[in-house]
Write a structure and sequence with these properties.
One of its GO terms (molecular function) is structural constituent of ribosome. By secondary structure, this protein is mainly alpha-helical. The protein is built from 5 helices and no strands.
């Protein structure tokens, strides 16, 4: 988990997420750095929009709230909206799960 945190720290201060950057943060925190994990994380994050993933991760619990009872037409519209949201959530969760799998 500390590898992900190091990447998020670099991202939050506007620095490029590089192997050297992650190693520096982990070393400063007193963590023994695993070169393979660092390389795998940097490779996995290439092409990922971290802001978008974080936004979807914080919105997902809100979208999972149960809708209030509504007339039939509104229920149909809400079901369609929910399906669209679930597809978006699934994509965000798949990206997050892929990153998590690196550290198991």
């Amino acid at each position: 988990m500390e590898y992900i945190y190091a990447a998020l720290i670099l991202h939050s201060v506007g620095k490029e997420i590089t192997e050297d950057g992650i190693k520096s943060i982990l070393s400063a925190a007193g963590v023994e750095v695993d070169e393979a994990r660092v390389k795998a994380l940097v490779t996995a994050l290439e092409g990922i929009n971290i802001d978008e993933v974080l936004e979807k991760a914080t919105v997902a619990p809100v979208a999972a709230a149960a809708p209030a009872p509504a007339p039939e037409e509104e229920k149909k519209e809400k079901k369609e909206e929910k399906k669209k949201e679930e597809k978006k959530e699934d994509a965000a969760m798949a990206a997050a799960a892929g990153l998590g799998a690196l550290f198991m």
